[in-house]
Write a structure and sequence with these properties.
With about 100 residues, the protein is an all-alpha fold. It contains three helices and no strands. It has one domain.
């Protein structure tokens, strides 16, 4: 038999994982779009080759050089929101224990 608390925390963890996956895909696609708009297809290939550097710098470049703020908002704003949700979920799990 499944404990009620275990099922609830498992459901919350699944929701957090789903939100994290959606955020990761959305921020990656927006970063690649910003690189494509700036440097074309060759830029995308280079960005995938040096992915960590490209995914950190692309939102800032898109924001300031192209006036395309969505990659920066989604990537770093989403990261802040997910960090807050994870902290709240962890606090809720320790309060129940």
């Amino acid at each position: 038999m499944v404990n009620g608390r275990t099922a609830a925390t498992s459901g919350a963890n699944q929701i957090l994982m789903l939100l994290g996956t959606v955020w990761l895909i959305a921020s990656s696609l927006l970063d690649l779009l910003a690189v494509y708009l700036s440097f074309g297809g060759v830029g995308v290939l280079l960005a995938l080759t040096i992915a960590p550097l490209a995914f950190v710098l692309a939102p800032f470049y898109a924001a300031f050089a192209l006036d395309f703020w969505w990659p920066l908002v989604v990537e770093y704003g989403g990261l802040a929101v997910l960090a807050l949700l994870v902290r709240l979920a962890e606090r809720g799990q320790t309060d129940r224990s």
